[in-house]
Amino acid sequence: MTARPATGEPAPRTATAAQPRDVGRRNVASIMRTVLAHGPQPRTRIAELTGLSAGTVTRLTARLTSAGMLDELPGVLGPAESGRPRVPLDLPTARNAVVGVHIGLLRTTVGLVDPRGSVLGQAVHQHHSHEPAQLVAQAALGVEQLIGELGGGRRVLGVGVGVGGWVDTDHGTVVEHQPLGWRDVPLGTLLTAALDLPLRLEGTVRAMALAESWYGAATRVDSAIELFIGNVVGSALVLDRQIHRGPRSAAGTLTHLPVAGARGVRCDCGRTDCLQAVATDSAVLGLARAAGAATEGEEIEDLVRRAGEGDHAVATLLRRRARYVGRAAATLLDLVNPELVVLAGGPLLTPEFLPDARRELARHSQLGEQAPQRLVHSGLGPHSLVLATAAPFLDAYFSDPLSFERGAEHLVIGA
Ligand SMILES: [Zn+2]
Predict the structure, then answer these.
(1) Interval between CA 280 and ligand 1 midpoint (Å)
(2) What is the pTM of this model?
């Protein structure tokens, strides 16, 4: 199901990071976000939408236009009541770009998006090592090549970076990433030094959650939980349109979440009912191998294909995974009561088993039959990694554009 609940007028896509304290900077952010969310608008409409006075909007938009942060479009929308022409203002989308970098277990994906989240292109680089220094060098080279090939002279505003595991966003460090064997890696510092661009590092699942609320499945709601199932499991909470991180950004871990009645492979904690042990791709592969239904070297995609071809044993395992995911979703839904739970990752590859997930969700949630309508699928599409990783930077940029436009700061809000 991709339908979204009808909640009246679509909420504008607003940034979810903290707002600047200075009133001038805040007004600039408000104007820029309004044009981002609503598209090209004349000054009168920007004033209505932001709640700022017409005078403030006229003064600031004139300065933003001369600083190159807004463009006057040639089209005239027709005379306003005053008889003056209404010139729409827009973001210089075609002149700017943002880079998204995802560092995965096997490969690094780099992509370029425009400030509205349209993907301009991406490239994938296979890893030859897990050494942080080598992966940073590979990512930096990939970004340089990408900008050279696809940038088309655009100005790159900054870089968003996503990596799995436990990421301390405030300190720009990867606290722990078991599959890569990383502990306390200052990835943000290393990449900033290599790229010489403003950069925001975020855990991949939190980046996905942010991207869902920017341009995915959760644009219309104030609260959502991203539930990711893949080589790892994890969640991210968006509450009042803000990502919830908690101390050291440790929120959202689901690795050892007990799943009622589930039995999977042995978790590294010793139990067999942890979400990690029953729902990850490697858990499903481990169970399939133990049952003689898969061979060494087969990947989850092989199992998905064989289930589709009628392999009953494999289909049973994937169906069971979907049920376990439904039970985990029930726990999250009851605990946090978000408007949506956005499901992403492996279970979406087997849509034929998602009704099983929904049934289990209804059975295990206190919301009963109301619960499944809160479960939606990721809306990020085939470029989800690029869109997700660009989102933390876009979020930071549109929360306080002038902090990224050093040259324009004096021009726009004055001394
Ligand atoms: Zn465990």
Answers:
(1) 12
(2) 0.88
Is the pLDDT at 365 greater than 50? The verdict is yes
* CA of 268 relative to ligand 1 center, distance in Å: 6
**Cα 274 to ligand 1 centroid, rounded to whole Å:** 5
CATH 3.30.420.40 domain extents, the chain: 96-211+383-397, 221-377
Centre of ligand 1 to C-alpha 231, Å, is 15
Mean pLDDT of the chain: 91
For the chain, the maximum distance between any two Cα atoms, rounded to a whole number of angstroms, is 78
CA of 7 to the centre of ligand 1 (A): 38
CATH architecture of 96-211+383-397: 2-Layer Sandwich (3.30)
Give distance in angstroms: CA of 267 to centre of ligand 1: 5
pLDDT at 17 over 60: no
CATH superfamily of this structure's domain 221-377: ATPase, nucleotide binding domain (3.30.420.40)
| pLDDT value for 412 | 76
